[in-house]
C-alpha cells in the first residue's frame, strides 16, 4: 500500500519535472536576449550587438527544422528552434530600426544596400526577411529532393547543431590570442562576452559593481554558468534519446566551455593583457 501511495506521488512529480525540463529547453535559449533587447530599445543604440549572431543562429535553427523532416526528434527541440528564429527576427527588426534612425547620411545608406560588402547590413528589415525566406526555400527544396538519402539527412543534422556548437570557439581563440579572459561580461548572452550596447551611464554604474570582484573570479563564475547550461542541455539530449548529432555537439560545447574555464584559471597566474572589446560575428551561445 505504501508503495502504491508513493507511486501516486512520484508519477505527477516526474511529469512536472519533465514539463519543466522541456520548457527550459524551449525558452532557455532566448532568455539572455530579453535584457539585450530591452537595453537596445531603451538606449536606442545597437552598435554593441552584432547582427551576424542572428545570421548564424537563424541558419543553424532553420537547418535543424529541416533535419526534423528527415529524422523526427523531440518536439521541445523543434519548438526551441521556432522560438529562437522568432527571437532573432525580433532582434534584427529592432537593430535595423535603431540603426536607420541613427543614420545621418540617408543617401549613402540607401545605396549601400546594393553593395555586396554590406551583406547583412541592410537598411530595411524586409531585406533580412527576404534573405531568410530565400535561404529557407533553397535549403528546403534541396532537402525535399534529398530526403530519402540517409547520408544527406545525417549530414544536415550535423551541420545544424555543429554551427550552433561552434559559437564558443571565437571566445576560446580570442582568449588564447590575448592570453587573457578580460572582456567577458555578465551582460553578454554567451561566451564571446564582447558586446556592450549599454548607455555610458548604465555602463559606468554596472561596471562599477562588476569591478568589485577580481577579474579571475568574474571570468570563472561566468564560464561555470555556461558550462552548467550546456551540461544540462547535453544531459537532456542523452536522457531523452535525441539524435546522435545533438549529443555529440552538446558534448563538444561542454568541452569548449571547459577549455575556456581552463584558460580563465591559467591566465589568473599571469598579468592580464588589455584586450579590445570588439564584437565578433559569431559571439553568442544558445541554450
TrEMBL record:
Biological process annotations from GO? phospholipid translocation; retrograde transport, endosome to Golgi
List all membrane-crossing ranges.
16-37, 49-71, 77-98, 119-144
Q: Which InterPro entries does this one have? A: PQ-loop_rpt, SLC66/Scramblase_ANY1
Q: What is its membrane topology?
A: Multi-pass membrane protein
Presence of the UniProt keyword Transmembrane helix in the record: yes
Key words of the record = Membrane, Repeat, Transmembrane, Transmembrane helix
The cross-references to Pfam families, in alphabetical order and at most eight, read:
PQ-loop
Q: Where is the signal peptide, in residue numbers? A: none
* Gene Ontology CC annotation, any one: cytosol
Q: Where in the cell is it found?
A: Membrane
| PANTHER family per the UniProt record, alphabetical | PQ-LOOP REPEAT-CONTAINING PROTEIN 1-LIKE PROTEIN, SOLUTE CARRIER FAMILY 66 MEMBER 2
The name under which this protein is listed is Solute carrier family 66 member 2
- What is the source species? Moschus moschiferus
Q: What is the lineage of its organism?
A: Eukaryota, Metazoa, Chordata, Craniata, Vertebrata
Amino acid at each position: 500500500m505504501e508503495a502504491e501511495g508513493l507511486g501516486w506521488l512520484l508519477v505527477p512529480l516526474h511529469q512536472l519535472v519533465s514539463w519543466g525540463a522541456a520548457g527550459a529547453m524551449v525558452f532557455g535559449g532566448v532568455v539572455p536576449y530579453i535584457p539585450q533587447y530591452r537595453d537596445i530599445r531603451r538606449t536606442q543604440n545597437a552598435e554593441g550587438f552584432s547582427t551576424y549572431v542572428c545570421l548564424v543562429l537563424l541558419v543553424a535553427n532553420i537547418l535543424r527544422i529541416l533535419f526534423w523532416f528527415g529524422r523526427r526528434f523531440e518536439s521541445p527541440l523543434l519548438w526551441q528552434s521556432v522560438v529562437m528564429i522568432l527571437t532573432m527576427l525580433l532582434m534584427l527588426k529592432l537593430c535595423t530600426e535603431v540603426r536607420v534612425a541613427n543614420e545621418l547620411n540617408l543617401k549613402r545608406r540607401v545605396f549601400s544596400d546594393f553593395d555586396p560588402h554590406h551583406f547583412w547590413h541592410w537598411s530595411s528589415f524586409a531585406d533580412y526577411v527576404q534573405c531568410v525566406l530565400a535561404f529557407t526555400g533553397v535549403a528546403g527544396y534541396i532537402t525535399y529532393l534529398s530526403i530519402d538519402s540517409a547520408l544527406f539527412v545525417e549530414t544536415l543534422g550535423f551541420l545544424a547543431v555543429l554551427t550552433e556548437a561552434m559559437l564558443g570557439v571565437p571566445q576560446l581563440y580570442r582568449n588564447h590570442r590575448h592570453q587573457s579572459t578580460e572582456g567577458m561580461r555578465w551582460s553578454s548572452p554567451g561566451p564571446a562576452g564582447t558586446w556592450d550596447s549599454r548607455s555610458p551611464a548604465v555602463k559606468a554604474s554596472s561596471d562599477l559593481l562588476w569591478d568589485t570582484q577580481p577579474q579571475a573570479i568574474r571570468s570563472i563564475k561566468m564560464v561555470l554558468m555556461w558550462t552548467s547550461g550546456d551540461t544540462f542541455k547535453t544531459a537532456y539530449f542523452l536522457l531523452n534519446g535525441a539524435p546522435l548529432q545533438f549529443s555529440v555537439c552538446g558534448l563538444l560545447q561542454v568541452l569548449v566551455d571547459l577549455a575556456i574555464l581552463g584558460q580563465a584559471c591559467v591566465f589568473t597566474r599571469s598579468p592580464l593583457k588589455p584586450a579590445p572589446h570588439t564584437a565578433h560575428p559569431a559571439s553568442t551561445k544558445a541554450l
